[in-house]
Write a structure and sequence with these properties.
mainly alpha, 0% strand
């Protein structure tokens, strides 16, 4: 994977992680028992879907330039990015186990991406 493809892969997974926060916000904006109209008028949901759509197009570009076996491990970075963003944005708890697991994931992504030149 070249440097541009690596950078775009990190941007893609970061965008998907941000989409998860938008989905969380969309869920929080719904009433206790939402009806169809609540879903259809939820701007957070549209923002999340739009971001996911854009990141899907970017992902397809990435897959034109890198094998799936090399690019896909970058998606595991979401397991690090999402909890960190959830802590920053929503004040959700962040345990040492999550951080340790994230470090192991980062080591695995580095190993998987670096092993293919």
């Amino acid at each position: 994977m070249n440097h541009l493809t690596i950078l775009l892969s990190v941007i893609c997974v970061s965008g998907l992680a941000a989409g998860q926060l938008l989905f969380k916000q969309a869920a929080a904006a719904l009433p206790a028992e939402p009806v169809l109209g609540d879903w259809l008028t939820n701007p957070w949901l549209y923002a999340a879907l739009g971001l996911y759509g854009a990141m899907t197009i970017l992902w397809i570009w990435i897959l034109r330039h890198a094998p799936l076996s090399i690019a896909y491990p970058f998606m595991a970075l979401a397991f690090i990015i999402v909890p960190l963003l959830a802590r920053l944005v929503f004040g959700e708890p962040l345990s040492w186990q999550t951080l340790a697991g994230g470090a192991l994931i980062l080591a695995g992504v580095t190993l998987a991406a670096g092993g293919h030149g």
